[in-house]
Design goal:
The chain contains 5 helices and 2 strands. By secondary structure, the chain is mainly alpha-helical. Helix 4 crosses helix 5.
Protein backbone atom coordinates (compact mmCIF):
# COMPACT_ATOMS: atom_id res chain seq x y z
CA UNK A 1 0.00 0.00 0.00
CA UNK A 2 2.90 2.38 0.56
CA UNK A 3 4.80 2.99 -2.65
CA UNK A 4 8.52 3.62 -2.56
CA UNK A 5 9.02 2.16 0.94
CA UNK A 6 11.29 -0.65 1.98
CA UNK A 7 9.79 -4.11 1.53
CA UNK A 8 8.79 -6.18 4.55
CA UNK A 9 11.72 -8.53 3.86
CA UNK A 10 14.16 -5.62 3.83
CA UNK A 11 12.77 -4.28 7.10
CA UNK A 12 13.10 -7.71 8.70
CA UNK A 13 16.68 -7.90 7.45
CA UNK A 14 17.46 -4.58 9.16
CA UNK A 15 15.88 -5.82 12.40
CA UNK A 16 18.02 -8.94 12.21
CA UNK A 17 21.24 -7.03 11.49
CA UNK A 18 20.70 -4.55 14.32
CA UNK A 19 19.74 -7.29 16.74
CA UNK A 20 22.84 -9.33 15.86
CA UNK A 21 24.96 -6.26 16.65
CA UNK A 22 23.41 -6.09 20.11
CA UNK A 23 21.18 -3.12 19.34
CA UNK A 24 17.71 -3.53 20.87
CA UNK A 25 15.07 -3.41 18.15
CA UNK A 26 11.33 -3.01 18.30
CA UNK A 27 8.64 -2.78 15.65
CA UNK A 28 5.54 -0.71 15.24
CA UNK A 29 2.89 -2.55 13.25
CA UNK A 30 1.14 0.32 11.58
CA UNK A 31 -1.21 1.30 10.32
CA UNK A 32 -3.53 -1.52 11.33
CA UNK A 33 -6.64 -1.29 9.16
CA UNK A 34 -9.66 -3.29 10.34
CA UNK A 35 -10.99 -5.66 7.70
CA UNK A 36 -7.92 -5.17 5.56
CA UNK A 37 -4.69 -6.09 7.35
CA UNK A 38 -5.60 -6.76 10.98
CA UNK A 39 -5.40 -10.50 10.32
CA UNK A 40 -1.66 -10.06 9.58
CA UNK A 41 -0.79 -8.99 13.14
CA UNK A 42 0.25 -12.45 14.42
CA UNK A 43 2.52 -13.14 11.44
CA UNK A 44 4.06 -9.65 11.58
CA UNK A 45 4.95 -10.06 15.23
CA UNK A 46 6.14 -13.63 14.70
CA UNK A 47 8.48 -12.60 11.88
CA UNK A 48 9.76 -9.58 13.80
CA UNK A 49 10.46 -11.83 16.77
CA UNK A 50 12.22 -14.47 14.66
CA UNK A 51 14.48 -11.70 13.36
CA UNK A 52 15.38 -10.44 16.84
CA UNK A 53 12.82 -7.79 17.76
CA UNK A 54 12.24 -7.51 21.49
CA UNK A 55 9.19 -5.25 21.45
CA UNK A 56 6.14 -4.53 19.30
CA UNK A 57 3.61 -1.74 19.29
CA UNK A 58 0.80 -0.77 16.96
CA UNK A 59 -1.17 2.15 15.66
CA UNK A 60 -4.57 1.94 14.03
CA UNK A 61 -5.18 3.76 10.80
CA UNK A 62 -6.34 7.35 11.00
CA UNK A 63 -7.08 9.23 7.85
CA UNK A 64 -6.53 12.89 8.60
CA UNK A 65 -6.86 15.69 6.10
CA UNK A 66 -6.75 14.78 2.44
CA UNK A 67 -5.44 11.30 3.30
CA UNK A 68 -9.04 10.22 3.99
CA UNK A 69 -10.13 11.12 0.47
CA UNK A 70 -7.08 9.51 -1.09
CA UNK A 71 -7.54 6.28 0.91
CA UNK A 72 -11.27 6.18 0.16
CA UNK A 73 -10.60 6.59 -3.56
CA UNK A 74 -7.87 3.95 -3.45
CA UNK A 75 -9.92 1.34 -1.59
CA UNK A 76 -13.00 1.83 -3.78
CA UNK A 77 -10.82 1.37 -6.86
CA UNK A 78 -8.56 -1.44 -5.58
CA UNK A 79 -10.86 -3.49 -3.35
CA UNK A 80 -14.41 -2.39 -4.18
CA UNK A 81 -16.10 -5.34 -2.49
CA UNK A 82 -14.48 -4.45 0.88
CA UNK A 83 -14.39 -0.67 0.62
CA UNK A 84 -17.52 0.29 2.54
CA UNK A 85 -16.98 -2.36 5.22
CA UNK A 86 -13.42 -1.17 5.86
CA UNK A 87 -14.37 2.52 5.85
CA UNK A 88 -17.26 1.90 8.25
CA UNK A 89 -15.01 -0.04 10.62
CA UNK A 90 -12.48 2.79 10.56
CA UNK A 91 -15.26 5.26 11.35
CA UNK A 92 -16.49 3.10 14.22
CA UNK A 93 -13.02 3.11 15.77
CA UNK A 94 -12.83 6.89 15.53
CA UNK A 95 -16.09 8.15 16.96
CA UNK A 96 -17.99 7.98 13.68
CA UNK A 97 -15.42 9.94 11.70
CA UNK A 98 -12.77 8.82 9.27
CA UNK A 99 -10.63 11.77 10.35
CA UNK A 100 -9.74 11.56 14.05
CA UNK A 101 -7.43 13.93 15.87
CA UNK A 102 -8.67 13.17 19.41
CA UNK A 103 -5.50 12.49 21.39
CA UNK A 104 -6.85 9.67 23.53
CA UNK A 105 -8.40 7.79 20.62
CA UNK A 106 -6.54 8.56 17.41
CA UNK A 107 -3.72 6.01 17.76
CA UNK A 108 -5.60 3.03 19.23
CA UNK A 109 -9.25 3.70 18.45
CA UNK A 110 -12.24 2.56 20.46
CA UNK A 111 -15.20 0.17 20.18
CA UNK A 112 -15.34 -3.41 18.89
CA UNK A 113 -12.75 -3.31 16.09
CA UNK A 114 -10.24 -1.39 18.16
CA UNK A 115 -10.64 -3.91 20.98
CA UNK A 116 -10.19 -6.78 18.51
CA UNK A 117 -6.94 -5.26 17.26
CA UNK A 118 -5.72 -4.59 20.81
CA UNK A 119 -6.40 -8.16 21.94
CA UNK A 120 -4.92 -9.77 18.81
CA UNK A 121 -1.78 -7.68 19.21
CA UNK A 122 -1.51 -8.52 22.90
CA UNK A 123 -1.99 -12.26 22.30
CA UNK A 124 0.56 -12.22 19.48
CA UNK A 125 3.14 -10.48 21.65
CA UNK A 126 2.49 -12.97 24.45
CA UNK A 127 2.94 -15.88 22.05
CA UNK A 128 5.97 -14.67 20.09
CA UNK A 129 7.75 -12.20 22.38
CA UNK A 130 7.23 -13.69 25.83
CA UNK A 131 10.01 -12.70 28.19
CA UNK A 132 11.43 -10.07 25.85
CA UNK A 133 11.67 -6.38 26.58
CA UNK A 134 13.93 -3.45 25.89
CA UNK A 135 16.94 -3.43 28.19
CA UNK A 136 17.13 -0.57 30.66
CA UNK A 137 18.62 2.64 29.33
CA UNK A 138 22.30 3.25 30.02
CA UNK A 139 22.76 6.85 31.08
CA UNK A 140 26.51 6.59 31.73
CA UNK A 141 27.41 8.77 28.74
CA UNK A 142 24.64 11.31 29.27
CA UNK A 143 25.89 14.83 29.86
CA UNK A 144 23.29 17.14 31.36
CA UNK A 145 22.97 20.16 29.08
CA UNK A 146 25.43 18.54 26.66
CA UNK A 147 23.45 19.38 23.54
CA UNK A 148 23.40 23.08 24.46
CA UNK A 149 27.06 23.23 23.40
CA UNK A 150 25.92 22.81 19.78
CA UNK A 151 24.29 26.26 19.81
Amino acid sequence: MEPRTASAQRRLSVIQQLSQMGIPVGVNTAPIIPGLNDHEIPELIKQASLNGACWAGYTVVRLNGSVGEIFSEWIHKSIPNKAEKVLNQIKEMHGGRINDSDFGRRMTGEAIFAEHIKQLHKLSKTKYMAGRSFPPYNYDLFIKGGQLRFF
